[in-house]
Specification:
The complex is a heterodimer of chains A (194) and B (148). Chain A contains nine helices and no strands. Chain A is mostly helical and 194 residues long. Chain A folds into two domains: 1-100, Orthogonal Bundle (Rna Polymerase Sigma Factor, Chain: A), CATH 1.10.1740; 125-194, Orthogonal Bundle (Arc Repressor Mutant, subunit A). In chain A, helix 2 (17-39) runs antiparallel to helix 3 (42-58) and helix 3 packs across helix 4. The model of chain A is unreliable at 99-121 (pLDDT under 50). In chain B, helix 2 (20-32) crosses helix 3. Chain B has 148 residues and is an all-alpha fold. Chain B is built from seven helices and no strands. Mean pLDDT of chain B is 72; it is low at 76-81 and 119-140. Helices cover 63% and strands 0% of the residues of chain B. Chain B has helices spanning 3-14, 20-32, 34-51, 62-72, 75-78, 82-105, 113-123. Classes of the chains: A mainly alpha (194), B mainly alpha (148). The A-B interface holds A 2, 17, 20-21, 24-25, 28-29, 32-33, 36-37, 42, 46, 49-50, 53-55, 57-58, 122, 124, 128, 143-144, 146-148, 150, 152-153, 168, 171-172, 175-176, 178-179, 182-183, 190-194 and B 8, 10-12, 15, 17, 34-35, 37-38, 41-43, 45-47, 49-51, 53, 55-59, 62-63, 65-67, 69-71, 73, 75, 78, 92, 95.
Chain lengths: 194, 148
């Protein structure tokens, strides 16, 4: 019984493969730009895009064709991104704890390596992108969806699986963080006076 | 409307995500309060800068590489947690146990009962020792064993 269910499931997925391929071809540029805004570098953005589509295809049977594909895709992407950032933060905490606990030495970054990697990939180093990167992932995601993608609070709430009130708060706090970051690091350039 | 309340609504006002009455209240407050108007203008600039970010063309090979990753990846490889596999195995086992239990609880059809009684009487004389609590019918005692 389980085997026949798996066969039906796989067959159903294969039947919808042309549709998925078409949707992927239509949306991958937009998905890449969204990922780029979330991650800040093209290498990380490409990884995020690939993982998003792999997961989207795996769960494609859940996709309702009457709804916008990009919103459904973003929901997956946002989940992957937020999970990834949280996991990295945990790893970083563990690695710092271990280093101080065992008396191990700190690793010193190779400046030349950084310069090389910067040459090799499109890194959005402009102040705005640095400001976005300094925010927590929930605020960053809400702000990018609202201001770069131009989505409504209701659409963002759907994508982030939360309430409109929470979206409103995240966008407001996110923009304020970004504003304060720009004013602090680039005084005079971004400051608005009366 | 006071400044604390107005400031908390500035982004929603900027995005036109407030109800009509609140929109008018914030608008009125911004006309009268310079610090809030400055705050609103700086938020508006942030939004404007973000909305004007240039579209970046992805690597020419990205679509092909993504298609390859999507259509050649096997579900087993995508399962990051070994716990997911254990859960799937436990579910399959539970389903099998339920199926067996249900089969044992299902009474035999009336047409099949006489034939079954004969078979049981021939194969297993132990059937005379008591009734089968899962069988749903009375035990048959073979004539060769009966003392009456």
């Amino acid at each position: 019984m389980i085997a026949s269910w798996v066969r039906t499931f796989v067959q159903g997925r294969e039947d919808r493969r042309p549709l998925f391929e078409r949707l992927m071809t239509e949306s991958y540029r937009q998905a890449f730009n969204m990922a780029l805004r979330l991650c800040g570098s093209s290498t990380e953005a490409e990884d995020l895009v690939q993982e998003t589509y792999v997961r989207a295809y795996r769960f494609f049977y859940r996709y309702d064709e009457t709804l916008p594909f990009v919103s459904w895709l973003y929901r997956i992407m946002v989940n992957i991104h937020i999970d990834d950032v949280r996991r990295r933060q945990r790893l970083r905490t563990v690695s710092l704890d271990q280093s101080t606990g065992t008396g191990g030495s700190w690793e010193v970054g190779d400046k030349n390596a950084l310069a090389d990697s910067a040459l090799m990939e499109t890194t959005l180093e402009e102040p705005l992108q640095l400001g976005l990167k300094s925010m927590n992932p929930e605020f960053r995601t809400a702000v990018v969806l609202a201001d770069v993608e131009g989505m409504s609070y209701e659409e963002i709430a759907e994508i982030m699986d939360t309430s409109v009130g929470t979206v409103r708060s995240r966008i407001h706090r996110g923009r304020r963080q970004l504003k304060e970051y720009l004013e602090r690091l680039y005084p005079g350039q971004y400051e608005v006076t009366a | 409307m006071n400044c604390t309340r107005a400031k908390s609504l500035l982004s929603a006002y900027l995005d036109r995500e407030l109800a009509g009455e609140q929109m008018l209240d914030v608008q009125q407050h911004l006309r009268e309060c310079t610090p809030c108007a400055v705050e609103f203008e700086s938020l508006r600039r942030v939004k404007q800068m973000l909305s004007q970010t240039p579209v970046v063309e992805p690597d020419a090979d990205l679509l092909r590489r993504t298609q390859e990753a999507v259509f050649t990846s096997k579900p087993a490889k995508l399962t990051k947690s070994p716990a997911a596999g254990l859960v799937a195995m436990a579910s399959a086992l539970a389903a099998a146990v339920l199926a067996v239990t249900a089969a044992q609880n299902t009474p035999h059809s009336p047409a099949a009962v006489p034939a079954l009684r004969q078979v049981e009487a021939k194969v297993s004389p132990m059937v005379v020792s008591g009734s089968d609590p899962l069988g749903g019918y009375a035990p048959v005692i073979p004539a060769s064993v009966r003392r009456d």
